[in-house]
Amino acid sequence: MNKTVLITGASGGIGKELAIIYATNSYNLILIARSKNKLDDLKQELEKTYKVEITNISLDLSNQDSAEELFGIVKEKKLQVNILINNAGFGLNGEFTEININSQVEMINLNILTLTKLSNIFAKEMLQQNSGNIVNIASTAAFQPISNFAIYAATKAYVLSFSEAIAIELKNKNINVTAICPGATKSNFMDNAGVKKIRFLSIANSKQVAAFIFKSVNNKQMIAIHGFLNKLIIFLLRFAPRSLVRKIAGGFFDK
Predict the structure, then answer these.
(1) Which end of the chain is more exposed for a tag (fewer CB within 10 A), N or C?
(2) Rounded to whole angstroms, how far apart are CA atoms 90 and 3?
């Protein structure tokens, strides 16, 4: 019997590439995104090639009660989740006082609240199954404050800390938790965030990052940073004065 992976933010970018990789490896899929049409196109594309079962759920996960709603649908459909990938998230580039506060609250809801609720809900299910994987997409932004990306970086710092903590709690209960920290990635994320240019950083594509995630999960890594340069920068930041870290990080992105 094929295992099932639930992927949020599956209609494009890293989420879509994850869906392709897991389908290639004979996993059944539960795909979550707001765009029903994009999910339907992806399902049709994958079902032509792979003998897997795909369930699409169109849902806005930035709503406060969306995690409970999603879980209710999964239970109603009598689906069992073996791997949860909390991939959905977004960022906004600009000064904290200039960005619409309602948009920032939606970011916090999606990047933190829904991710936390889904991790809690499905961790309890996995405890009953005596196995499972939870994968939370953090970011290299989690390792330092970033001016003009203040809320996004802070949410990813939460995701990293939270994931590492529950990984320790669940380690001896046959549930593996992995925090993935990609760097800048070619996807719609930067366009949606309002970033026109990225300085200093190497940029991976979504397919490369998805392949890295698949390998990291299989290897049961607790924290996985994508890319040698990203690993090197994060290592060096440990020894730099905080004032220098703030200055460097704030210069990465152009509006």
Answers:
(1) N
(2) 28
